[in-house]
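Folds vary. Our protein:
___
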Amino acid sequence: MAQIEVKNFQQPDETREFEGKGKADMVTLAGKTVGRGTFEPGWRWSKNVKPIAGTEQCEVSHLGYCVSGRMRIFMSDGTQKEVAAGDAVAIPPGHDAEVLGDEACVVVDFGEISEYAKRT
């Protein structure tokens, strides 16, 4: 019989520090990874995660909920969208992103996040 699993982001299974301006806390439940990204003011994927990922753009598919703050997403085709507290968002691979304003953006991500900002 399957068991109920409960974990708390205050005690994550793993914390992945960005190259400055934030981190991703990870928990694994039922074999799936859930991430909580804390993106500080001034954070941009191309500056703070690209050196870790080693790709030109973020190639992770995200499915998330924005808890606080705001972020702008830049797709490789030139389209842009803003995400703010209370928004649910699906972001396909092939993007960059940046925090807007002076408040940290916190996003809980249920997407294909297991390898996000993972150092090899």
Q: What stands out?
A: The longest strand covers residues 22-29. The chain has one domain: 14-109. The helical segments are 45-48, 50-53.
